[in-house]
Amino acid sequence: MTNKAKRAVGIKYSESEGDKTPSVVAKGYGDLAEAIIASAQQNGVLIHEDPYLSEFLTTLDLGQSIPESLYYVIAELLAYSYALQGKVPESWKQSMPGIEEKI
């Protein structure tokens, strides 16, 4: 496999589930990466392309939580994706009253 091979990593975060840390739910290279991306697009999942982040995330096992060193960057991506969709996480509503009017 060359460094130019397409790769994809899916992460999931759910405030309603017990673990509040995003975890890896899908990963693959080449044709599998293309299938992951196509599935995400078909299901309305936002896609962020970052070769450095995806390179690191592919080293994690499926189901593994992201490491603490990535909390900030993943939090920014999640916040941005929520804003793009016009959504406000419940925890934001509680800690920042009136946030819904600003998005």
Automatic annotation (TrEMBL):
It comes from the Bacteria. The keyword Transport applies. Pfam families: Bac_export_2. The keyword Membrane does not apply. Keywords: Bacterial flagellum protein export, Cell projection, Cilium, Flagellum, Protein transport, Transport. InterPro entries: T3SS_substrate_exporter, T3SS_substrate_exporter_C. GO terms for biological process: protein secretion. Gene3D superfamilies: secretion proteins EscU (3.40.1690.10). GO terms for cellular component: plasma membrane. Belongs to the type III secretion exporter family. Required for formation of the rod structure in the basal body of the flagellar apparatus. Together with FliI and FliH, may constitute the export apparatus of flagellin. This is Flagellar biosynthetic protein FlhB. It comes from Marisediminitalea aggregata.
